[in-house]
């Protein structure tokens, strides 16, 4: 399997994300958003 497309896109990350369910992908995104907010010093929305 190719790791990078002709355009330099990391295909392993696309395959990894597509191996998850939509719910798992959403949870991953929410975790990433919380991490970014914490690094920026933002207060979480409750």
User: With helices defined by DSSP (H or I, 4 residues minimum), what is the helix count?
Assistant: 2
Oligomer: single chain
Please tell me what the overall shape is: elongated
| Order of H and E elements | HH
Strand composition percent: under 5%
Calculate the mean pLDDT score and round it: 92
Structural class assignment: mainly alpha
Percent helix: 55-70%
Radius of gyration: 15 Å
Which regions have little confidence, pLDDT < 50, spanning 5+ residues?
A: none
The total beta strand count reads: 0
Largest sheet: none
Structure description:
The protein is mostly helical and 46 residues long. The protein has one domain. Helix content is 59%, strand content 0%. The protein contains 2 helices and no strands. It is elongated, with a radius of gyration of 15 Å. The protein starts with 10 loop residues before the first helix and ends in a 6-residue tail after the last helix. The mean pLDDT is 92.
């Amino acid at each position: 399997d190719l790791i990078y497309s002709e355009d330099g896109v990391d295909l392993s990350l696309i395959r990894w994300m597509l191996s998850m369910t939509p719910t798992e992908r959403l949870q991953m995104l929410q975790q990433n958003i919380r991490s970014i907010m914490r690094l920026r010093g933002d207060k979480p929305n409750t």
